[in-house]
Amino acid sequence: MAERNELHKRNRHNGQYDFSKLTENYPPLKKFVSPNPYGTLSINFFNPQAVKALNKALLISHYGIRYWDIPKGYLCPPIPGRADYIHYIADLLNSSNPLEKTPKYRCLDIGVGANCIYPIIGCTEYGWTFVGSDIDPISIENARKIVTCNPVLVHKIELRLQKNNRSIFKGIIQPDEYFDVTICNPPFHSSKEEAEEGTLRKLSSLKGKKISKAQLNFGGNANELWCEGGELRFLLDMITESRKYQKNCGWFTSLVSKEKNLDKLYIRLKLEDVAEYKTIRMQQGTKSSRILVWRF
Q1: CA-to-CA distance for 213 and 210, rounded, in angstroms?
Q2: Most buried residue, 54, 60, 71, 136, by most Cβ within 10 Å?
Q3: What pLDDT, on a 0 to 100 scale, did the predictor assign at position 96?
Q4: How far apart are CA 256 and CA 262, in angstroms?
């Protein structure tokens, strides 16, 4: 899992992790590092504490983040994949403004989460400013603590609580505001049970043997992993609601985890009479993912 040759060309995590550098910058990672069956240094990616320690080391080493933590049970994101999203969005924005040499874009992260990872990468890599929204007060407060504890992020990231879990943009985007782009990593599943089953299948496939529910210890709470109607319903609602905010946003974008959902999303985009839409493909090792983007 350390080899990542197919990430975006600007992704800092291409190639193998330099565990010597990472453990030097964050010594607590060292206890989780050992040779894998191929003889190269790695960690046990099935151990949430090890993954969290790796994230801290990556954020210190590559992004200058001195403090980062998440509450127990909350989603611990894979940083290389999250960085890919930001780099592809940078390409999208720059293709729309080719004459600007150092554009300072303003972005809205729908569902910023307790980890605040997209704003961290966007701010440190490109100097963008962010508004991050979430329906979970704990996520908002934790993200705010990350921002206030890192001078490189202060005054660049604003956090807003979405008080109506039926709304996405309403109550967050103010009438006179403008964002160059919105980003989102939507809840994948329609229920807790479906989320658990999906994670079990994924882990069993990676480990090469069946994993029991008792062994399931990866993070992710309700609003992070599932919502009523799952990813498809969430994104259909997002597309419909985005029409009302077409003057407030340049591009609307979201990850789409399930390829089978694209056709229905395309139909909704046509019904809403968007000016342009497309799918950006990403590849992270054996994992394929995609970003749906549209504008009016």
Answers
A1: 10
A2: 54
A3: 78
A4: 8
Buried b (16+ CB within 10 A) or exposed e, 164-199: eeeebbeebbeeeeebbbbbbbbbbbbeeeebbeeb
Considering the entire predicted model, what is its pTM?
0.86
Q: What is the pLDDT of residue 61?
A: 97
Please name the amino acid found at residue 190.
Answer: S
Instruction: Note the pLDDT tens digit of each residue in 152-190.
Output: 999 999 999 999 999 999 999 999 999 999 999 998 645
Residue 105 DSSP one-character state = -
Q: Look at residue 226 in the predicted model and tell me its pLDDT.
A: 40
* Beta bridge mates, 279: 292
Residue among 84, 121, 105 nearest 291 (CA) = 84
Residues 6+ away with beta carbon under 8 Å from 24: none
How far apart (Å, rounded) are the C-alpha atoms in residues 171 and 133? 10
Burial label, 98 (beta-carbon count in 10 A; 0-12, 13-18, 19+) = exposed
pLDDT at 46: 86
CA dist., res. 116 & res. 143, Å (int) = 5
| Helices 79-96, 117-126: crossing angle, 10 deg rounding | 50
Q: Are 172 and 108 in contact (CB under 8 A)?
A: yes
For the four alpha carbons of 205, 211, 217 and 223, in that order, the dihedral sign comes to positive
Judge whether 236 and 268 are in contact, CB under 8 Å: yes
Q: Determine the Cα–Cα distance for residues 245 and 177; give it in Å rounded to an integer.
A: 10
* 189 token code pair: 């599943």
| pLDDT 10s digits, 19-78 | 999 999 999 999 999 998 888 899 998 898 999 999 999 999 999 999 999 999 898 999
CB 129 within 8 A of CB 107: yes
